[in-house]
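Q: Here's a chain of 373 amino acids. Please give me its 3D structure as C-alpha cells.
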Amino acid sequence: MSNKIPFTKEDLQKYLKTLYKTAVDVVEVREFIHPDEEIKEFGYGIPLLIDVDVKGTRERLMLHTVRPDKYGHERRSDRAQSILLDFDSFNQLPKHVTALGVGTFTREGELKSLDDTEEFFLVTKFEAGRLFAEDLKKLSSADNLLPETRERVLALADYLVNIHSKKKDSPSLYRRCIRDLLGHGEGIMGLIDSYPSDFAVAPPERLKAIEKKLIDWRWQLKGRTNRLSQVHGDFHPWNILFDANNEFVVLDRSRGKFGDPADDVSAMSINFLFFSLQQEGALHGAYRVLFELFWEHYLQNAQEVEINEVVQPFFAWRALVLAHPVWYPDLEDETRQQLFEFIETILEVDWFNPEQVNSYLPSFRPNKRQYAQ
C-alpha cells in the first residue's frame, strides 16, 4: 500500500475488524479510477478499491470520501453531512449497494468508526459574565448612557474590524454564503417558511413579495467575492458576555468561518433599533447614539467601501428573526409591523445611511412621539 495514503494497512485492518467483528486481512488497496496503476497520492473524492480476506473468503470493498468543491462542499461539515446522509439512506432503498460503515480519519491517520452513533454533541468551557443584551434593556434616554456602555460598543466594533481583516480568496464560498443567506433553513427562506400562515402582520403574500425582492439582492451581491472575510456569523447581544473589567467573550459562532462582514455588523446594530422601537417607536435617545457610534467607528477603522451597498438583505434577515412570533412571542404587533416596514423599505434602498434610519420606518407607533432626523 502506498505510504502516501493517510492511513496504514494496520489502521485499515483495525477499522474493518470493528465492522466484521473478526480479523480481516487487507490484500490490496488501489484507486478505483485507475485500477492498474499504483496509487500516486490520496485525493479526497477518489474512491479506493479494497480487497480483503475474511476467514478465507475474498471480498471487495469501496472506501468513499468527498472532496472540497464549489457545489456545497466547501466546509468540512458539508462533507461530513454528505457522508452521513449516504450511510443513513443507502440501506433504506431496495437493491441499493450496501453501506457497511461510516467513519472519519484522525489526525494521526487512524480510521475511527461512527457506526453506532446517533446525535452529535459539543462540549465547551463555561464563561461567566453579563450578556450585553442586559445593557441594552436598561437604556432609554441618552442621559442614562453610561461611559462603560459606549466603551463596550466601541470594543465590539473594534473586534469586528479585527476579525473582518482576515480575507479569503474563494469566489465559490462567497457565493455559497450569499446563497445560504436566502436558501438555508436557518436563513431567510427557512424563516419565512416557519411563519404561521395566518399571521396577520405578515400574511403569505407579504412574505412572498419580500422573498422576491431578496432574489434580486442575491444577484447584486454574489459577484462581490472580494468581500469574503472571517466572520462570527451570529454576532448579536445575546452572544456577547462582558465581565466586571469590561472584557468580553463571544458565544455560538455560526454558519461557517467566512462570510460577508455585513452579516456581523447588521446582527449587532439592528438590536439598537429593536430595543428602541419597543420603547420609543423609532431610533432615539441612547439607542440612536449607540447605533451611530457603532457604525461610525466600524466604517472609519475597517476601511469599508461597500457595506452600505450590501447590508440591506442582511438587515432583512435579522429583522425577520426579531419580528417572528415564535422567537419573540411577547413583542407587540406595532413593533412587528415597523420591522416589516423597515425590511420592505430598506430593500428598495441602494445605499444604507446609518444616520437616516428613521426614514426607513414609514410609520411610527401612534402612542409614541415621532422623532425628526
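Q: Can you summarize the key feature?
A: The radius of gyration is 26 Å.
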